[in-house]
Design a protein that fits this description.
Blueprint (H helix, E strand, L loop, with lengths): L1 H24 L7 H35 L4 H24 L5 E2 L4 E2 L2 H34 L1
Antiparallel strand pairs: 1-2
Helix pairs in contact: 1-2, 3-4
Length: 145
């Protein structure tokens, strides 16, 4: 597995960089079909890389649990916490009643279209707060030792 990652990583990075440059440098002020294709290709590549990473992470976690079943309680707790945070963020985002301005069409986005992005922002806030609290706790606990 290590050798596969060693040789596959530079190829994936090169493809990503090529798509980024294509997307950035073919996007002038006036939108065209070619620009939309470049940006759409970059987005699809990002989604594909994310999906593959997610599948590999889940397979690695399951494999690790099979090899070392002692950590299953912590894994189940973490999984339930992640699902609870995402569900909570979705319900909070779904409960908002404000409208987001769509400058391109001189109107407002439909609320159903913005709930997922709103929930994603809330999840990012929770993750950032967790990282900050974890860093502070780690620094304080190291200082007290």
């Amino acid at each position: 597995m290590g050798k596969l990652i060693k040789y596959l990583s530079p190829i994936l990075i090169a493809v990503t960089l090529a798509l980024v440059f294509w997307s950035v440098f073919t996007t002038p002020e006036v939108p065209t079909v070619e620009n939309a294709t470049a940006v759409g290709s970059m987005l699809m590549w990002g989604y594909a890389i994310f999906a593959v990473a997610l599948v590999i992470a889940i397979i690695a976690a399951i494999s690790d649990l099979i090899q070392k079943p002692t950590g299953i309680k912590g894994t189940i707790f973490a999984g339930v916490a992640v699902v609870a945070i995402i569900a909570g963020a979705y319900f909070i985002a779904n409960g908002h009643d404000y409208q987001i301005v769509d400058l391109g069409n001189q109107g407002y986005f439909e609320r159903d279209d913005t709930v997922i992005s709103d929930a994603s922002i809330l999840v990012a806030y929770v993750a950032g707060a967790g990282a900050i609290i974890s860093a502070i706790y780690s620094a304080i606990s190291d200082a007290l030792k």
